[in-house]
Amino acid sequence: MTTLDTPFPPAALTVLDVIRSRRTVDISLLKPDAVPREVVEAILEAGTWAPNHGRTEPWRFTVFTGEGRAQLAEVFAQAYAAGSAPDREDGAALEAQRARAWRAPLWISLELHMPEKPKMPEWEEQAAVACAAQNMWLAATAFGLAGKWVSGPVMVSPVAAELLGAPKLLGLLFLGYPAGELPSSTRAPLSEKVTWVE
């Protein structure tokens, strides 16, 4: 439960507790169990309710689960091969990229689709996609899932974006049920980060 002393409405306490229990979890710490489709759809729906200054809804998502991860495996391999890593032509390195796709039961791409005639600067639209990702991550947490937003060179590669039909890729969320207890975490006190003007 929350450590706040002020009596807040139950809904507020639930939201605050979900925020505080969200964790970044390495892929090796996830169970292979599939995530039910209705849970995935609820997570995606949460993403679409993100704030968006221009009401352009610039987010698009591609979901990879089950056998569909074979397509993601090829995206990873092709993006890696097109990159600058010294071993980009090494068969074992490409197989390692393919294998990565199978290590989490659920992957969701975070795609930026700018309007044809932009009303807002790109940074604002990127921020909207980030808010959508956070909404999805919090919804996933409420469903007992954990994971990570990955944004390494392969995950934001223009090659990967093109293969997904996305103008720009801001990374992927991988999610699954944790295999054990989630790690604890702390944050520095507000007094170190907030200035009050009253």
TrEMBL record:
Pfam families: Nitroreductase. Coiled coil: none annotated. Residues 19-177 form the Nitroreductase domain. It is an enzyme of class 1 (oxidoreductase). It comes from the Bacteria. Its cofactor is FMN. Keywords: Flavoprotein, FMN, NAD, NADP, Oxidoreductase. InterPro entries: NAD(P)H_nitroreductase, Nitroreductase, Nitroreductase-like, YdjA-like. Its EC number is 1.-.-.-. Belongs to the nitroreductase family. This is Putative NAD(P)H nitroreductase.
